[in-house]
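INFO  loader      accepted 1 record
INFO  loader      residues=149
INFO  predictor   begin
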Amino acid sequence: MNLKQDAAAFLPALMAAAGMFLATGPAHADLKLCNSTPSRVGVAIGYQDQTGWATEGWWNIASQTCETLLKGPVPSRFVYVHAVDYDRGGEWGGKNDMCTADKSFAIQGVQDCPKRGYKRTGFFEVDTGEAKEWTIRLTDPDAQESKAK
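INFO  predictor   done
INFO  writer      dumping tokens
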């Protein structure tokens, strides 16, 4: 075989290998949450998409683990989070009221929560800066206080 024949024989194998690599596709942009606390936490999120405001929950996230909350690009610049510490009590909340339920939920709209049979719950705001992929990290407030002293 000459160099041209070697290259011609090698090209189909190279293309097949490239096809297998491309078939796996690029990494997807997702919204993730990492629980950096010693407790199990329950997490609810709120965001605005093409249809309006939505809230979803509850993800149960073990201590020192991360979970994908939404697959695909982050739906809006601002994402809202409410989390509950299952093991020690307490919560991460904020001034942005949105609708939640006691069990797993996906709710459209944030108005008139009690009238619609939902709880009104305070969420804290996360500014993703228009990023398509974002990771939120919950930390232990007690650990931060002890480091500051």
